[in-house]
Specification:
By secondary structure, the chain is mostly helical. It has 30 helices and no strands. Among the domains are: 111 residues; 142 residues, no CATH class. The radius of gyration is 41 Å and the shape is elongated. Belongs to the CBF/MAK21 family.
Length: 621
C-alpha cells in the first residue's frame, strides 16, 4: 500500500509545476479558507522531491507557521476534561495545525539527514529548524524541537559530520544553544547507558538480524563525542554579561522540563520576573557541563574515543567541571588498566591529586609499574616523563621510593635508545639533588651486595657451622658482581634498591652516543650541595629521538675535526699499545708456541740424525 502511495506521489510531483506550488502557497497565506493547501505543500517536503520544490514549499510553510506558533498548543499537552473545550472549533483547528507543524519538523529532519539532499539544501533546512527553535515557544528557546534534532542526528545511520560542523560553526557561539546542547546530550547519554545495560542482558536476542549491537553503539558514541568536543568552552569569568543569545529569553525551569507539579502555578505567576538570561545561563553552565560529561563517560567508550578523551581531559574538561573530583572513578579505573591508557590517564589523575586533594594510595606503585622500555617509544612520552618528574618532586617522598625509581630508571638506561638515556640522566640527576638520602647509591662501589645477601652464607650461619672465614667475615663487606636489586619486582618496597648502586649510570660514560656520554658527566658533581647545582628541565629531553640528536650534532661547531688519514702509514692492524689488552697475552702465547715448535723440530732432527747414523753403521757392517 505504501509503495502504491509513493508511486502516486511521484506521478503527482512530476505533473506539478513550480508555478503551481507558488499559487498554493500564496493562497494559503492570503486566506484561511485555503488551509487545505497545507497538506499539499507538506507532501513536497520530502527527500524524494526536487530541491526547488522543497525550497518553494518550505518558504510558504515557514511564513505560514511562524506567526501562529505562539498560539498553538503544546504537542505533549493533554486535552482538557471539559467537553466545551474539546468541542471548540478554534481549539480543534489549532490542534490540527500543531499536528501538521510536527509533521513539517519531522519532514525537515528527514530531508536534513537524507544522503540524497545536497549541502545547500541541508543548510537552508537547518536554518529553518533553528528559526522554529528560536520562536516556537513564544519567543523563548524551544528545547523540544532542538532535542529532537540532536537525537535524530545522533541516531542517524549516515555520516553527519557536515551537519555537525555546520551546527557548530553557526550556532554554538550562542550560549543558550550550548546550554541546551549539554542538556540534550546528557539525556541521550543516559538513554544509551540504559540501552547498553539492556543489550548486555539480551545479547542473543539483539543479534538475530546479523548485525552486532556494539557497532551501532560505537557510532552513536562517536557522534556524541564529536558534538561535545566541538562546543566552545565557557570562559572562566562568569561575570561576563555580553554573551550572545539565539533566543530572547526563557523560563529556566520550564525550558529544561524540570517543573514540578506543585510549583507550576507559582512559577506561572512569576514567569515575567524569572527569565533565563545570559548571566543566569553562564552561572548554570558548569552544572550542565558536568552532568553531560559524567553521563558520557559512563558509556562503553571505543578505544579511539577513550584515548581522545584522556588526551584532552585535563585541559578541556577538568577546569570547567563544578566538582572535578567526580572524575576520580573514571580516572582511577583508567589508570588501573595499564599500558597506554594508564599513561594518558596519569595527567588528569595528577591534577586531581595536586590541585583538588584526591587521595590515591597505590599511585606510586602503579607509576613504578609503567616504567618499561616500550614507554620510551610511546606517542605521549613527553608529557609522561614531565609528570613523572613532577610526581617525584615532593620532599616528603620516602627514601626507599626515590631509590627504587632511580634504580629502575638506571636499569632501563642500558636498554633504551639514546634519547631515552638522556631523559633518564635528567630524571636521576633531579632525584639525587632532591633526595640527598639516596646519594649512597652513587658512592657505593661494586654491586652493593654484602655477605648477608648471600643465601648460602646465611644458611651456614643459621646451621651453626664453625667456618673461620664465615665467622670473621663482616656483614658490611661487599661481595662484588652481585646486584641485590630485583628488576622484576613490581613493588618498589621489595626491590632492594637501597642496597644497590647506580652502576648502570657509570656505564653510560662509555656510551656510543657522544651526547649521552657528555651529559652523564653532570652527575659527577656534588649534588648534595643544592646551592651549587640546579635542576634539569626534563621537558628539554622528553621528546627527543634519533632525529633530534642527529640534528643537534649537525648544528654543533667542532674546533678540532677528526682527520681521515694517517700521518704515518700503519704497518699492522693494531699498534703495540692497543694490542696489550688486560687479561690477554698474545705475545707470550706466540713465543711459547714458537718455542714448542722449535723443540719439536729439534727432536725430529735428532731422531732423523740418529736414524741416519744407525743406517750408516748397518751399511758398513
Amino acid at each position: 500500500m505504501a509503495s502504491i502511495l509513493s508511486k502516486k506521489q511521484r506521478q503527482k510531483h512530476k505533473s506539478t509545476k513550480l508555478s503551481d506550488l507558488k499559487t498554493l502557497g500564496h493562497d494559503l497565506l492570503s486566506s484561511r479558507a485555503h488551509v487545505n493547501n497545507l497538506p499539499k505543500l507538506l507532501s513536497f517536503v520530502s527527500p524524494t522531491s526536487p530541491p526547488q520544490f522543497v525550497l518553494e514549499s518550505l518558504l510558504s510553510l515557514q511564513a505560514f507557521f511562524t506567526p501562529l506558533l505562539p498560539d498553538l498548543p503544546s504537542s505533549s499537552s493533554k486535552p482538557s476534561a471539559s467537553n466545551a473545550s474539546q468541542d471548540d472549533p478554534d481549539f480543534i483547528y489549532r490542534t490540527w495545525l500543531r499536528s501538521k507543524f510536527d509533521e513539517l519538523v519531522e519532514s525537515l529532519i528527514q530531508v536534513l539527514l537524507s544522503p540524497q539532499s545536497d549541502e545547500t539544501l541541508k543548510e537552508v533546512v537547518l536554518d529553518t529548524i533553528m528559526e522554529f527553535v528560536k520562536s516556537g515557544n513564544g519567543g523563548r528557546f524551544h528545547s523540544a524541537i532542538y532535542h529532537r534534532l540532536l537525537r535524530s542526528i545522533v541516531h542517524s545511520t549516515t555520516p553527519a559530520n557536515f551537519l555537525l560542523d555546520l551546527l557548530a560553526s553557526k550556532y554554538f557561539k550562542y550560549i543558550d544553544v550550548r546550554y541546551f546542547t549539554y542538556i540534550s546530550l546528557e539525556k541521550l547519554s543516559r538513554v544509551l547507558d540504559a540501552k547498553d545495560i539492556s543489550d548486555d542482558r539480551n545479547l542473543n536476542t539483539d543479534c538475530n538480524d546479523g548485525g552486532h549491537p556494539s557497532e551501532s553503539m560505537d557510532l552513536l558514541i562517536h557522534k556524541i563525542h564529536y558534538i561535545m568536543s566541538h562546543i566552545p568552552s565557557l570562559e572562566a569569568s562568569v561575570e561576563k554579561t555580553d554573551y550572545d543569545m539565539w533566543s530572547g529569553s526563557g523560563d529556566d525551569e520550564d525550558i529544561s522540563g524540570n517543573l514540578k507539579a506543585e510549583n507550576k502555578q507559582h512559577m506561572t505567576e512569576k514567569h515575567n520576573d524569572k527569565v533565563l538570561t545570559a548571566a543566569s545561563i553562564a552561572k548554570k553552565m558548569k552544572l550542565k557541563f558536568t552532568k553531560a560529561w559524567l553521563s558520557f563517560l559512563r558509556l562503553p567508550l571505543p578505544l579511539d574515543v577513550y584515548k581522545e578523551v584522556l588526551a584532552t581531559l585535563h585541559q578541556a574538561v577538568i577546569p570547567y567541571l563544578s566538582n572535578p573530583v567526580l572524575l576520580c572513578d573514571f580516572l582511577t579505573r583508567s589508570y588501573d588498566i595499564g599500558g597506554v591508557i594508564s599513561v594518558m590517564a596519569l595527567s588528569g589523575l595528577f591534577i586531581l591529586m595536586t590541585q583538588y586533594g584526591l587521595e590515591y594510595p597505590n599511585f606510586y606503585e602503579k607509576l613504578y609499574a609503567l616504567l618499561v622500555p616500550s614507554i620510551f617509544m610511546a606517542k605521549h612520552r613527553s608529557k609522561f616523563f614531565q609528570l613523572v618528574d613532577a610526581c617525584l618532586k615532593s620532599p616528603l617522598l620516602p627514601a626507599y621510593l626515590a631509590a627504587a625509581f632511580a634504580k629502575k630508571l638506571s636499569r632501563l638506561s642500558i636498554s633504551v635508545p639514546p634519547s631515552g638515556a638522556l631523559v633518564i640522566i635528567a630524571l636521576v640527576h633531579n632525584l639525587l639533588r632532591r633526595h640527598p638520602s639516596i646519594n649512597c647509591l652513587v658512592n657505593r662501589g661494586g654491586g652493593g651486595a654484602t655477605v648477608k645477601d648471600d643465601p648460602e652464607t646465611e644458611q651456614r650461619v643459621a646451621d651453626g657451622v664453625n667456618d673461620t672465614a664465615t665467622a670473621s667475615a663482616d656483614k658490611s663487606v661487599k661481595k662484588p658482581g652481585i646486584d641485590p636489586f630485583d628488576n622484576e619486582q613490581s613493588d618498589p618496597i621489595k626491590s632492594n634498591a637501597m642496597r644497590s648502586s647506580l652502576w648502570e649510570i657509570d656505564t653510560l660514560r662509555h656510551h656510543y652516543c657522544p651526547a649521552v656520554s657528555r651529559f652523564v658527566l653532570s652527575l659527577e658533581n656534588d649534588l648534595t650541595v643544592r646551592a651549587k647545582t640546579t635542576e634539569i628541565s626534563v621537558g628539554d629531553f622528553s621528546s627527543g629521538s634519533y632525529a633530534t640528536i642527529f640534528g643537534e650534532q649537525m648544528r654543533r661547531r667542532i674546533k678540532l675535526a677528526p682527520l681521515a688519514y694517517y700521518k704515518v702509514p700503519p704497518t699492522s692492524l693494531l699498534s703495540e699499545s692497543e694490542s696489550e689488552f688486560l687479561g690477554w697475552t698474545f705475545k707470550c702465547e706466540d713465543s711459547k708456541r714458537k718455542n714448542d715448535i722449535n723443540d719439536e723440530n729439534g727432536k725430529i732432527d735428532q731422531d732423523c740424525n740418529h736414524n741416519s747414523v744407525k743406517r750408516q753403521r748397518v751399511e758398513c757392517s
